[in-house]
Request: fold
Amino acid sequence: MNILVDPLARPLVAHRGASAEAPENTLPAFQRAADLGVDAFEFDMRVTADGAVVVHHDPTLERITDLAGPLSTRPLAELRTADAGFRFTADDGATYPFRARHVSIPTFDEVLEAFPGMPMLVELKEVAGQERVREVILRHGAAARCLVASEHHAALACFRDGRFLVGASRKDILRLLIGSVTGARPRSVGYHALSVPARHHFIPVGTRRFIDAAHRLGCPVHIWTVDDPTEAARLRGRGANGILTNDPARLGAFGTKPAS
Reply:
């Protein structure tokens, strides 16, 4: 069973790779996370102007790279020229150790090929392009190791045919959150796991009551983004399954495999 949908597992999940130590959503960040022994990766996907699926969080390029403007207006060949290590600094701008190091925005294909045994929580950032993501997953035979999620319920429509592992959308999460307070229980759900923030606009989400409600449905709950060991321990005490972190070197003790 994929560790991301195993209700008994307590995985440590690298949020955009080891993004505290290397540029987020890049192959160096994923390699560092793999070297640290994480249980899974989490990353974001968008689609280029010519239909390539790439790993990138923002709709625009300027926060991470030396280019600017919307990613969706550029073909893959142009994105290949971007320096995805250009903005990364771990010391408040004193140094930029990944500049001009040929760090690029990777394609989804490249990440799947580079880490063939790694479970992946893949976040679709937009409704458009879901068919492209689906094609990549099927081409690599990766449906069993990819948990496909999105805040947009409609972005998951083409993954609901029984062949894919599907995460809860924002609509699903809100419904379960309200139900955990009111006592209303859904008879069935169309997802296999939930990935939620510890809190949203100061409103606690990853509460014991919410986690218990998910567990009664047989669904694990993964909490993001947690870089403090004390907070991680508190969330695990509530029953949280996965801990998504930018800093797996610091939180390495919180990664465990499911009981055999």
About this structure: Residues 12-59+107-254 form a domain with the TIM Barrel fold (CATH 3.20.20.190).
